[in-house]
Design brief:
By secondary structure, the protein is mainly alpha-helical. The protein is built from eleven helices and no strands. Bound molecules: iron/sulfur cluster (SF4).
Length: about 240
């Protein structure tokens, strides 16, 4: 079972506020309200998210820890031979692509003139905290290989800003529930997710839709008969 048949833009109706709230409440009953204070480490989050591509959380974390242990600072990663970076992150998979991408991102941040050349840390992204969200999104997605999901992870997890990462689970569950338009491109999914998420509920909606995708609304065989959302779900199976 996929995320459902594509619905053309012209036929799409955004979900009513009341329905979004009802879904949020049912998910809250099952999974609770996630609590995770913003950690204020935007560059750590950015690199961690790059490492998470095409692997599981465990391998991502092993790769991240090895990178931190071996180099100690992002400055050192920037100036290291790319083969050494690649070797450090090998447990995370596609390490050649990721090592080149990480260094390209660090080079781009280092070259940005928001941070004065004399600053002790040229790789400082702390300005994102007080910048308007669209400015932060535009900057982050201008970095090599960084898309809306990665940008949203940085803005939400580092600073609690109004952005919502739409990963494979969130997009699948959101489309099956018709919170998001089935068949919509990723850019539209992120805009739609932001539009239906009240400020302050970004983390909760992201985490609980993701949990529901992992535990119940599986990609191949969603457990519809035991799903707490089956009554409101237009994609439920018998
Ligand atoms: S009823 Fe639940 S498990 Fe089934 S498709 Fe809908 S959200 Fe997914």
């Amino acid at each position: 079972m996929s995320a459902g048949a594509t619905i053309p833009q012209a036929q799409w109706r955004r979900p009513a506020r009341r329905r979004v709230t009802a879904i949020r409440d049912r998910l809250r009953d099952v999974y609770g309200v996630p609590i995770m204070a913003p950690h204020e480490q935007p560059l750590d989050e950015l690199i961690l998210t790059v490492l998470s591509q095409s692997t599981n959380d465990r391998n991502r974390d092993v790769a991240y820890e090895r990178l931190r242990e071996r180099f100690g600072s992002w400055e050192a990663v920037l100036h290291a031979p790319v083969e050494e970076v690649e070797e450090a992150i090998r447990p995370g998979g596609i390490s050649k692509v990721k090592s080149e991408r990480i260094q390209a991102i660090l080079r781009a941040i280092d070259a940005d003139d928001r941070v004065p050349p004399t600053a002790p840390d040229r790789l400082d992204l702390a300005w994102l905290k007080d910048a308007p969200v669209p400015e932060g999104q535009a900057y982050l997605t201008s970095l090599p290989g960084v898309g809306r999901k990665t940008a949203a992870c940085v803005l939400l997890f580092a600073y609690g800003l109004h952005d919502v990462p739409v990963d494979t689970h969130v997009s699948r569950v959101g489309m099956r529930l018709h919170l998001l338009r089935p068949g919509a491109p990723f850019e539209e999914l992120h805009d739609a997710m932001l539009a239906l998420t009240p400020p302050g509920e970004e983390l909760e909606l992201h985490v609980n839709l993701l949990r529901h995708g992992r535990r119940t609304c599986h990609a191949r065989r969603p457990a519809c008969p035991s799903c707490v959302l089956r009554r409101t779900c237009p994609s439920r199976q018998a």
